[in-house]
Amino acid sequence: MTENGSVAESPATSPLSALVQQWTAREDACDAAIHQQLQRALHQGREQSVRVREAAVLAQQGHDELVRLLELARDEAGRAQAATRELRRYDRRLRHAESALQLVRNLLRVRACAEGIRVALAERPPDIERACAHAETYRQLWSGSDNENGAARQGVSSMAAASAGGLVSLAPVEESIQRLQQLVREQAAAAAAAHKPSSSSTRSESILLWARRLRQAGLEAEARQFLVQHAVQHELYPHREMSPEAVPREWQGIQRLTLLYESVATALHRYSGVLRAEFGGDEAVSALVAACVQHCNQHGAPLVQQFLREERVREQLLRARAALEGTAAGTAASGDGEPHGAPPAIFADLSASMGSDIHAFIEPSTAGAAATSPSASAVGLSDTDMHRLDGLLERIAVIGRRTGTFAQFLRACDPTHPALTDMQRRDGTLPYAVQELLGYYVGLEDCYLQESVRRAERADQAPQWVEANTSGPRSTADAWTQRTSSLVDDAFFVLKKCLMRTVSVHDVNTLGAVLNHVNALLSGPLRQTLAQRVRTRSPSSALLSAQLMLGGSLKPGTLDALLVAINDAQVSAEYGGKMAARVLPAAMQEAQLPDTDKVMPLLAEMEGAAGELEVVAGRGLDALMAVLEEAVLTRAASQSRLDCEVSAVGGTERGSDGADRFVSGQRYLVSEAEYVAGPSAPVASFLAAITAGALDPFADKLVPAAWQQLVCRVSEWTARRYQRATLGRATRFNALGALVWDAEVRALTAHFISRAPTQRLRIREHFRVLSLAALVLNLDKPGEVHSLWEEVQSAGAAEVRGWLSRRVEFSPEVIQALKWES
């Protein structure tokens, strides 16, 4: 304690007192700041309250002003409605005035027309043209056709009311018009009677002038009928004088039918525009088309029936079928020097136009077809028969084509008029006659096809050799001038010619019927012939074994007949497919053939027949493959040590020929010193052997498609044999050996793909298992197979484990512990 009794401040309490003083000062400052902010907020609130009161006053003033404006608008709207009602009253009065004025004008014009008609008829001779012009004006006034607004039309109705009320008398006008109509009828009939068919445009213009006068006089239906009757009676063949060109006798009926169609087309072209211009709309044109259709049925059907009688189409069809069946078709011998009992000469021969190369007909870039001349047989049609048949079919095709295009032209002129149902439903006289003719055409075309294919079989010639070395024997460098027999080219030349001729007939039903015959021919006789050739030309096992024992290899020329049969079937399949997929659709589109959807199923059937021919070629390739497997492939695999079997003792390999060969260790346990990039020597030797013995000898003898099919079959055999020689045994691999094996698989695959690029997918499928195994064997660790599981899961988990177990570096425990994704 100090002397004065106070407690002395200790050094320990002085900092606490200072801290309290600081907190107290801060609290005072905060209280002052808060107080200041509250004062400011109170002041701002008072100011906001004043502003709100001012805004409320302004809003009330605006509301009062808006109410006053709405009242003013309501007053103005009432005044506007009153003005509108007044304007409507004035408008009605104006329309009444205009109607009255129009009535007066019409009455004045009617009086002028009546006076004009009376004066024109009073002249000697009567001025028909001026009277008709006045009559047309009167009709227009009475019908209101020359008025352009509602007031004018109302004036016309007022004129009718005035006439009905007796304000004006129209009886004299009607009487004058009736006299004019009678006079125009008489003079038009006299002009039509004096008219003669001629190409002079002056006479046609006079007829048009009288038709126009009839229409002006109020006889529109008679004018239309007058013009149509004139067009039919004086412009159409045979009424119209036409000088047909000099044609052979058998073409004269076709020429007359063509002139009939041409005259109808000319008349329609000449009068359609006039009828539309004079009468408006398509009713007059429809009447003309109906009259032309009736005229064609009347005069065209006898021409077609005369053609049937003169050509004796039905009798010729029956005789042709009898001749093809080998029966007697007539009682007397023909005048062409044929022996008694032979089929009568009734048709045509295609021997001059039947080519030995179809490429020029299907592909324009290929050289033209060489002609062949098959000799006539005792059973069938003679050369003269075939020659006449060809000409008859061409003439029938011309009739069908011109009739079809003419019917299409009529439908284009008037596609909706009922008068065309005769042409569309085929129940008119002319369409019925043409359909009867086309029915015979289908049968005749079938006979022509059958006989042409029979002739092609009889005249069949094998391909000729061109020796590369004429002084020595034939070698593998020799080539054929062509790779198929003449049967294929001759048969498909005829098939395409008949189909193109049928397309030109311009009738989809006829085309469908002929397509049925063609499909039956492709899937029947032609396929059977080619299949029989494949069977009979395959070398027998005894002959093959004798050649292999005596000569040690397959003799040249042993398989030539089989190769020709394979080529024939393969090319036939290609021609049939191309005909169905490209040639016929393009021809139908070019000919603008209607309703082509009807023949699409038949084209699909033709593609199916082509597929059957390809199956025949495949059977021939299977027979060829069996020969090559026994004579070439197995020996090549043995000689290249591709499939030697490891014996259980001594590390000795036993080849498939029974010879023992010593090898040191297994082929795919390769050290770094022994490793060489690329396939091993046995694989390289095997590829060289099969290329020289099984592929190259047939590259120039087989057509490309058959050659690639053969390569594909050899690749399948190779993949199967190589898989048996490696994966089929307990073969072990190290890392470098797996690389060698992968190179071998790649080399085999690339070798065959390079020779058959179009069969790339099939060849890769043959080597798919080997490729997957190579992919698995070249992994660095077994666990990496999980990243490839989507690619290799098709092989199965057990197979993949088996592949991994062949690697000497991989532990069996690790492989068994692998878990696969489901």
From TrEMBL:
The keyword Secreted belongs to this UniProt entry's keyword annotation: no
Coiled-coil spans in chain: 80-107
Gene3D superfamilies named among the record's database cross-references: 1.20.58.1970
KW NAD (keyword) present: no
Keywords, ordered alphabetically: Coiled coil
Domain COG4 transport protein middle alpha-helical bundle as annotated: residue spans: 173-535
Protein name in UniProt: COG4 transport protein middle alpha-helical bundle domain-containing protein
Organism: Cyanidium caldarium
